[in-house]
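Appendix B. Chain record.
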Amino acid sequence: MRNILPTYPAGVAGCGLLLLRAAVAAGVLAGLLERPPASPLAWLAASLAMACCMLGVLTRLGCLLAGALVLRLALLPAGIDGRLHAAVLLGAAASLWLLGPGAYALDARLFGRKVLRIRTRP
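Structure tokens predicted for this chain:
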């Protein structure tokens, strides 16, 4: 059975995940600047989501928060551009939630790859 823990890919895949994390954070920021929320709690959640995605710490929690904020934006009355922005950003947040943060994240440093050394009996 496959391990369900994240593998934290490095190299080109890790760079792609780093760019995806930056795109999700930038998309949340763009959505906030386009339609700022009135609630301070929404600002706090958005700031937490952007920080989690950019730094790669608690990335999956940040993606869930980003997805909730994007759904909030999608439910507000908007034109086709707003809904398209929300759909693309929701897809990016969902894919990042499924893939994990990658090797170039704080999650990889805190919970990442471990080296197991198995001693052989003499």
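Further analysis of this model is presented in Appendix C.
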